[in-house]
Every structure is written in structure tokens, then in C-alpha cells.
Amino acid sequence: MTTRGVYIDLLPKIDTDSFLMALRRFTARRGTPHELYSDQGTNFKGGERELSEAFAAMQPNLQSQLAKQKIQFKFNPPGAPHFGGLWEREIRSLKSALNVTLGAQHVTEEVLSTVLTEIEGMLNSKPLGYVSSDVADVDPITPNSLLLGRPDPDLPQIVYPESELLSRKRWRHSQVLADHFWAHFIKRYLPELQTRAKWITETGKDLKTGTVVMIVDHQLPRALWPVGKVSATVPGADGKIRTAEVQVQGRKYIRPVSKLICLPPLPEDNKDS
Description:
With 273 residues, the protein is an alpha+beta fold. 37% of the residues lie in helices and 16% in strands. The chain has two domains: 16-79, no CATH class; 91-266, no CATH class.
């Protein structure tokens, strides 16, 4: 919840053993969390009980050594999913787009696992904001840059035709499904980031020269989030800003404000403290 990073794992069952093995995979990749928030699922409650019993059965000297690594479980009240609004929102976005992508078709576990991992990379590459500076190119902060400590890794993507959904080549099948998810995700997710409401608030009133924005472009390959600075604004006949010119890495794009999402500046560390 600090980095807004997403971790997706495929579990064969919803029981305590599957949850504990998934937790072990998570800690092996991301490290041991200090706190774990969840609902009142029996698999989560059973996992917490088993870990507590295993810790209580250890020798006192071993307990003192591992006390700092003990995970503190925090459960939502029963019947209160809104307590986990932060992660429930991400789950809903993923499920909605994945439901439209897969539909009623059956895929192998290997293909589904690959698609879910691709989705994890897409979600962790979305810009969270930017650090204020005077450099020409905007370098947005993403969950991947916080988790990995370097720019987002990305391999060259190959776009396969729709006919590959019926192909026996599982690799191509997984890539077509990942492309489908990206198309449905940005169609439903990005418009929700635009807080402007038609006929209620003024369109583009906060848009001005120097504003850092993300461009909504459905034609781009997946996991590409173009970010740039507004270099000029074009008002309409009524004086309202309807169009803007955006500078993205040496190139200029003219887009309507309905296709631009303002990114908030992230606070810099106080070096004097």
C-alpha cells in the first residue's frame, strides 16, 4: 500500500495451505511484510492461526530473533468490504477487464498464469505522479520504479492477429489475451481518473502551461503510458480550454482535454530534516 504496487498470484484452491504457499512466494519475491490486511476469509484466518501456533512452538531464543519478522494480521470487520477500499478497487478493475477478456473461453493454467503476470506488469507500470524538477523530460514515478529501483523493464512486444486465439501456440494465445486486457482496462480505468463531470464542472479549468499530464491513447501497445508537459492551451469559442499541446520526449501532440489526465506532483524529501 506504500508503493501502490500490485502482486497477482494464481491459487488452485481457496484454503489455508494455498494461502500460506502464496504468502511464501510473495515474501520470497518482495520481502516479509510488517502488516497484512485482509477480510475475514477462512483461508486467511487459518493461515494466521497456523503461523501463530508455529511461532509459539519455537524456543524462546529463536522467538526473540524472529520477533521482528513476525507478520501482524489485521482483519476487516465482518461484512465490511469497504474497509479494504484501496485494494478492493484494484481487484474490481482487474476482474472487470479480465472477465470481458476471457469471457467463457477455457485457457490452460500456464496461459492464465502468464496473462496474470503480464497484467501485474501493466498495473505496476502506470504513473503515480512525478517529482518536481527543471529537467526537460518528465520522469514519472511508477510502482515498478519503487519496487525495482530502476526504470520499468519491458521487452519488445509483438502484436498477433485475433486468429491466434484459436491457435495451438500457447505463447501467442497469451499475448493476444494480454492485448485484450489492456484494451478493456484503459477503456474502463483511465476515464475514472478524470474527475471532471460533463455539464457540472468546467472542462480543463485546471489545465495550464507546464502541467504534467498523461495522454489516453487506445492505439498504443500495452503498458505504454505517455507522459508529458502541456506546452500550450487552445481555448474554444466560449473561452474554455478544450484542446492542449503536449510535449512528450521531443515530440508535440495536440489532444482534447478529455484525453488528458493530470498527474499530481509527489513531495520531495526534506534534506534539512
